[in-house]
TrEMBL record, chain A:
Organism: Petrotoga miotherma DSM 10691
Listed transmembrane segments: 7-27, 47-71, 83-100, 106-127, 139-159, 179-204, 231-251, 271-293, 305-324
GO cellular component, one term: plasma membrane
Chief place of localization: membrane
Protein name: ABC transporter permease
Length: 351, 290
């Protein structure tokens, strides 16, 4: 019921945002109908567009889930961009230097990159536990540090001299993740992680403790959960997911190397997705696919109607604001109406 | 030293704007976006009319409009402030890049001789003193305005009726309501002021520091401002000092690049400093508690 509610308000919000965006497109002198037709054609209409939607959604599913699990445990992990990029660089380096062949190698790369991302996230957790440093600020600052650090590593020690922009060497061909009918294997890995996360959060004792921590911090402490330790675990696990997203970008993407600007916005989109999905693992993934559709379709709008692809970013922001505000407005005013109805009943019965 | 003041100014302005929202208990993480929008519209206004004043006006109006949007969602529609802020930041980043492509037809950065930068001030008495004159004189005028503003804010927030009401709203909105003050109105005013100041900080970035607009040119300065506010618990004079500290390290960044240290490493400095300051601050506090 609750998740149905989330999806319904989501649809209302999305419809409203498409209307708002239509006005913007019209103001720019383009036809909204043509624009949306292009969006649909490139995002859903054919098997090719559908598969590119799903491929686009892959990193979003993971970063969205990462943010959602953190938020629902009352941990503010805004470090997804940093964790993702650290994981991506790790995968790019391992992909070039790792001597283990084939599928086993892929497995090792994914696990190690995830763990590096997790450690990067866990660092913020450790700083919080031992030094009481607000994870809101630390994760943010760690993002910028990761950004410059990886760029430094790709520009100096690990630079591929043949490339024109700062980039690492291309990974070995045997580590490229194959596609099945156009859908990259990485999408299925992401979906697999959705199930794993759902299981962890719903059925494992640790996951229960995380949720309790998010629900009522003091209560879970009295109940015997080690909140501060759990915070580090949440940070590690959500960092792992983001790091994995970065690794899949390298192994399953199109570049197969670490390039300046890779993974731009995926981390922040994840944070927004978690918000739109109301911090549910499944709901967030559904919206991730929708954002993947916008990304794939946005290219269509650029090709056919000459609307710059940055417009999808604007559209995404409008959607986030309107979906969340629709939900909060509805719940706020329905609570108010309920309360006033109740008050009337009480007044009547006392007459 | 001279550069310290330049680098500190945008952070200082945004942070001062943020103090209003800090005391009104509005969680304002939209400063980053407000700065970026201010930077863009400052350039746009300056370009269209070839006048820095119009640039400033454009920036202030755009900051006010963003504040209106923020308030509409956060106050009227009861959207979570945190979410609204993130949405606004995304809108700013996507919107300015989109407009950059749509209006000027460029990607990356926009430079034009038609953009007029902010005028600098030659202060009469100061230009007589040899060393101070080199450090402090002939900055764009916003530098001086923002330093004066920091002092002024200390007075406004702690010694005026408005400041008292603002802090009361932050402490306990229901009690202030019973005293006949509309807490939503106070919150709205604080958001509006922070929007205007943050966008002015952004204008300084695009018209004072340099004379161009580039994508995402605020580059985390709004976040650093927020971190500073939280660190000094909103005290305007503390903000002034911390901003200067950050400005100092940012200018050290440029100096270090002359010594063959890769720019990526030096660019990390401001963010590392934030962490170090936070670390020192937190470990001090936990010692006190023991």
């Amino acid at each position: 019921m609750k998740s149905l509610n989330k999806i319904l308000t989501g649809i209302v919000g999305i419809a409203l945002s498409f209307l708002a965006a239509a006005v913007l497109i019209k103001l720019q002198g383009n036809s909204p109908i043509d624009a949306y037709r292009a969006l649909f054609n490139y995002g859903l209409a054919s098997w090719f567009s559908l598969s590119s939607t799903l491929n686009n959604a892959t990193p979003l599913i993971l970063t969205g889930m990462s943010a959602a699990i953190a938020f629902s445990s009352n941990v503010v992990n805004l470090g997804e961009p940093g964790q993702l990029i650290v994981g991506a660089l790790t995968a790019a380096l391992l992909g070039y230097y790792l001597p283990i062949p084939g599928v086993l190698g892929i497995f090792v790369i994914l696990i190690i990159s995830g763990i590096i991302g997790g450690l990067y996230g866990g660092l913020a957790g450790v700083l919080k536990k031992y030094y009481k440093m607000d994870e809101f600020i630390t994760t943010l600052m760690l993002n910028f540090i990761a950004d410059y650090l990886t760029l430094y590593l790709a520009t100096y020690p690990f630079l591929d001299e043949k490339s024109y922009v700062p980039a690492t060497h291309m990974i070995k061909r045997e580590f490229f993740l194959p596609t099945i009918n156009g859908i990259n294997i990485s999408f299925f890995i992401a979906i697999f992680m959705v199930f794993v996360s759902f299981f962890v959060v719903t059925y494992l004792k640790k996951g229960y403790e995380w949720r309790m921590m998010g629900h009522n911090y003091d209560f879970s402490k009295i109940g015997g959960c080690k909140n501060e330790e759990n915070l580090i675990w949440v940070m590690f696990y959500t960092g792992f997911l983001s790091g994995l997203a970065g690794a899949l970008l390298i192994l399953g993407g199109t570049q197969h190397r670490f390039i300046k600007g890779i993974g731009a916005n995926y981390g922040w989109d994840g944070v927004m997705l978690a918000i739109v999905g109301g911090n549910g693992v499944i709901e967030t993934s559904v919206f991730a696919v929708f954002f993947g559709f916008l990304k794939a379709g946005g290219i269509g709008m650029e090709f056919e109607v000459f609307i710059p692809s940055e417009f999808t970013m604007v559209l995404q922001a409008i959607i986030v604001l309107l979906v969340v505000s629709t939900r909060s407005t509805i719940s706020y005013y329905s609570d108010k109406i309920k309360a006033s109805l109740k008050a009337k009943r009480v007044v009547k019965s006392s007459d | 030293m001279r550069d310290s003041f330049s680098s500190a100014t945008p952070i200082l302005l945004a942070a001062l704007g943020g103090t209003f929202t800090y005391y009104a208990n509005v969680f304002n993480i939209a400063m980053e976006g407000m700065m970026l929008i201010g930077a863009f519209f400052g350039v746009l206004g300056s370009y269209l009319f070839q006048s820095w004043a119009m640039g400033m006006l454009f920036a202030v109006i755009s900051g006010a409009v963003v504040a209106l949007i923020f308030s509409a969602f956060a106050l009227s529609l009861k959207t979570d402030e945190f979410l609204t802020g993130i949405g606004i930041n995304m809108l700013a980043l996507g919107g300015t890049t989109y407009l950059l492509r749509n209006i000027f037809d460029v990607k990356g950065a926009f430079i034009s001789p038609r953009i007029e930068s902010l005028p600098t001030w030659d202060i009469p008495i100061l230009n007589q003193i040899p060393i101070l004159s080199q450090i402090l004189n002939n900055h764009p005028f916003i530098v001086y305005v923002s330093i004066l503003l920091a002092l002024l804010l200390e007075v406004i927030i702690f010694h005026t009726k408005f400041g008292l009401r603002l802090r009361a709203t932050g402490e306990d909105p229901e009690t202030t309501r019973s005293l006949g003050i509309n807490p939503n109105k106070m919150k709205f005013t604080s958001i509006l002021l922070s929007g205007i100041l943050s966008s002015m900080g952004g204008t300084y970035l695009s018209l004072g520091y340099v004379t161009l607009f580039s994508e995402n040119m605020s580059n985390g300065r709004g976040w650093i401002s927020l971190a500073i506010i939280i660190l000094v618990k909103g005290r305007p004079l503390g903000i002034l000092l911390m901003s200067l500290l950050f400005g100092f390290f940012e200018s050290v960044t440029f100096t270090l690049q002359n010594f063959n240290i890769p720019p990526q490493i030096t660019s990390m400095l401001p963010y590392l400093i934030t962490l170090v300051v936070l670390f020192l601050y937190s470990s001090n506090k936990s010692k006190e508690e023991k």
